[in-house]
Design brief:
It is a single chain. With 398 residues, the protein is of the alpha+beta class. It folds into 2 domains: 201 residues, 2-Layer Sandwich (Cytochrome Bc1 Complex, Chain A, domain 1), CATH 3.30.830; 174 residues, Cytochrome Bc1 Complex, Chain A, domain 1, CATH 3.30.830.10. Helix content is 42%, strand content 20%. It is built from 15 helices and 11 strands. The strands form 2 sheets. Strands 1-2-6-3-5-4 form a 6-stranded mixed β-sheet, with helices on both faces. The longest helix has 19 residues. The relative contact order is 0.16.
């Protein structure tokens, strides 16, 4: 039985905690808002804002923020997804209060310095150039673009014209609107005490105000694209089909389906494309799900002369998912259960999973994962691959 605790404070802040014996702690502060809540004029703001929180608070400048964590052997990072933005650190538990103070200070009291904003503007623009110049990552963005309607379809990074025009007021308004305590979750996993976490949270988050969350509509579609590029040696091939959302009980069948199709070296795609034919170094599938959307993406990097052949094999394997034998099905379930156990060793992963589960049901349900996978029926998996549409994309050398 996992040693799990949860409490919602009077100001609306949710605190999640799993106690562990190893002398390590992960501290994650998350807001229930990400890029999906942007419109065209603000596209890119959530991600840019995430960057700005690392640039300084009223208590620490950007170097002091990173040094406070790294000088004791810790790790500091953050990320923006469609429906959340996260800031986290992982460090020896004896330095818990230091780590907690740094992360919560960043989130609660960002300085949003005008000079730092201008510097980071250039960093974001370079990040956008970097993604464009990495065909694999660019393909992932394009697959999303052709598989959803706007504004959700647009990249989390946003538009260059937006990045160039955002002002300090844009960031201040974003913070005031979406970083109120009732829209925040503090998720901690490690060897500390719950009472200490609660006490520190009550001190760190004293803002007033309530979050008025806009309604978002995520509409799906399916389409195709081909882009020809110079100066690349490999073709990049992608497919995407839509799946149930994270809160749907069918999400467990999605994991089993993905284990059969393209997760790992024993998967159908890896065996057929790489092991039997040597047509690709990388071929895989992966599932992405949050509260309001879900999909599976298939990716392969291949030589241009082999593109047609690999495309045919992948389509055949996707269609072939409508037939799965009992042993393959049971093996995939065991793979999911075992992988989840292995990934749970990383306390930061668990802290984020607690938040994700809390966003759709209850955080403590992550501890039922093995039972939920065991309950998946073969028919549940077969039903997933009866999808009506499939997006296809390629980036091809000239």
């Amino acid at each position: 039985m996992n040693d799990f605790y949860k409490k919602r404070l009077s100001n609306g802040l949710t605190v999640l905690f799993e106690k562990r014996k190893l002398p390590i702690v992960a501290i994650v502060v998350l807001t229930k808002t990400g890029a999906a809540y942007e419109v065209k004029q603000t596209k890119g703001l959530a991600h840019f804002f995430e960057h700005m929180l690392f640039k300084g608070s009223f208590k620490r400048d950007q170097k002091q923020i990173s040094s406070a964590i790294e000088r004791v052997g810790g790790i500091l990072n953050g990320f923006t997804s469609e429906e959340m933005t996260a800031f986290w650190c992982k460090l020896p538990s004896k330095h818990f209060e230091r780590g907690f103070d740094v992360i919560t200070d960043m989130v609660a009291n960002p300085k949003l310095d005008a000079k730092e904003l201008e510097r980071e503007r250039g960093v974001i623009l370079q990040e956008m150039n970097m993604i464009h110049d990495q065909p694999k990552q660019f393909l992932f963005d394009k697959m999303k673009e052709i598989s959803y309607k706007t504004p959700f379809a647009w990249s989390i990074l946003g538009f260059k014209e937006n990045i160039k025009s955002f002002t300090r007021k844009n960031f201040s308004d974003w913070h005031n609107n979406f970083y109120c305590p009732d829209n925040l979750v503090v998720s901690v996993v490690g060897n500390v005490e719950f009472s200490d976490i609660i006490s520190l949270c009550e001190t760190a988050f004293k803002q007033i105000g309530r979050t008025q969350m806009p309604k978002i509509t995520i509409s799906t579609r399916n389409s195709n694209f081909i882009e020809k590029r110079e100066h690349i040696d490999q073709a990049h091939l992608g497919f995407l089909f839509h799946l149930p959302k994270l809160g749907d009980e069918k999400r467990y069948a999605c994991d089993v389906m993905n284990a059969v199709l393209g997760e790992g070296m024993s998967s159908r795609l890896f065996q057929e494309v790489r092991e039997k034919r040597g047509l690709a170094y990388t071929v895989k599938s992966f599932v992405e799900q949050e509260r309001d959307y879900g999909h599976c993406m298939v990716y392969a990097g291949v030589e241009k002369p082999n593109l047609k052949k690999v495309k045919e094999i992948i389509l055949k394997e996707i269609k072939g998912m409508r037939k799965i034998d009992k042993k393959e099905f049971e093996d995939a379930k065991e793979q999911c259960i075992g992988r989840n156990a292995v990934e749970s060793e990383q306390c930061e992963n668990v802290a984020i999973q607690l938040f994700l589960q809390e966003s759709v049901t209850k955080a403590e349900e992550i501890y039922k994962y093995a039972d939920k996978i065991s309950e998946v029926k073969l028919k549940d998996v077969l039903d997933l691959v009866k999808f009506k549409g499939l997006s296809q994309g390629m980036i091809v050398p000239v």
